[in-house]
UniProtKB/TrEMBL annotation:
It is a multi-pass membrane protein. Keywords: Membrane, Transmembrane, Transmembrane helix. The chain crosses the membrane at residues 12-32, 67-87, 94-115, 121-139. It is found in: Membrane. InterPro entries: EmrE-like, TMEM234. GO terms for cellular component: membrane. Belongs to the TMEM234 family. Gene3D superfamilies: 1.10.3730.20. This is Transmembrane protein 234.
Length: 143
């Protein structure tokens, strides 16, 4: 029969792996959708109506009829649901900084893949520092 300490060790490791993968999933769902939401809303600023109510209606109609905007927005919001569920199972001090910082990394990667120009080495240096900080934060909680 296993001692309580031995049986608790694998469970803790499984929870940590699940937590880290959930945090990574949230960061991907948030970060990868941001450039798509931006692309899907192209033309939004050009909308003009005669009244404030007319402007509101025009903007709402524009956004809800564009699948290029709605689909990434829905995925982004599903990421928020995963985030809330992850917060229930993990430490706040781990989840919040990791999910938020990695979101910027995935936003930069996705934007680059979509052809957006970036500020060169500073972006990549910043991404490397974010990833390094996230690894340190994760290791601190695991060890």
């Amino acid at each position: 029969m296993d001692s309580p300490e031995e049986s608790a060790m694998p469970k803790i490791a499984q929870i940590d792996i699940f937590s880290l993968s959930s945090i990574l999933l949230v960061a991907v769902m948030w970060g990868a959708t941001n450039p798509f939401i931006k692309k899907g809303s192209i033309g939004y600023n050009d909308l003009q109506a005669n009244s404030k109510l007319g402007q509101l209606w025009l903007e709402i109609r524009f956004l809800i009829t564009r699948w290029q905007y709605i689909l990434p927005l829905v995925i982004n919001q599903l990421g928020s649901i995963v985030y809330v569920l992850t917060l229930q199972r993990t430490e706040l001090s781990l989840t919040v900084p990791m999910a938020n910082s990695l979101t910027f990394v995935f936003t930069a990667i996705t934007a680059r893949l979509l052809g957006e120009r970036q500020s060169g080495w500073r972006v990549y240096c910043g991404m490397a520092l974010v990833v390094l900080g996230t690894i340190i934060c994760g290791l601190d909680k695991l060890l």
